[in-house]
Amino acid sequence: MPKLETFTLEIKTGTNPGPEKPHFSINGFPLQFEEVEGTTEPGGTMNLMGETHSFPHSLALAGPENDAPDWDIESVSIKYFCAGAEPYTINLGKVTLDDNSDLNIWHEAPPVMFDV
Question: pTM score, two decimals?
């Protein structure tokens, strides 16, 4: 498992807005994003940067809290910066998060493909 130094998210919100200040958890520990730019209002885009400097057994984007409306996400693009490796990007599609759900955002790099 690689050591994750930092990661960035680009979240495009659908029809239902998300939390004003989203947060994430790594290995069960809740953290705030270091950089936040944009909005989670309907149709908006938010860019976030998180620092972990850890080995991520789990990494999750937290859903809305305490009976807040569901958050419709159109897409998520995640760029990972791991120690000793080239950065890589994973793209996720539509999902709706509620106050009982989080989005798994930890995905190891896809294997290198080549012809033989």
Answer: 0.90
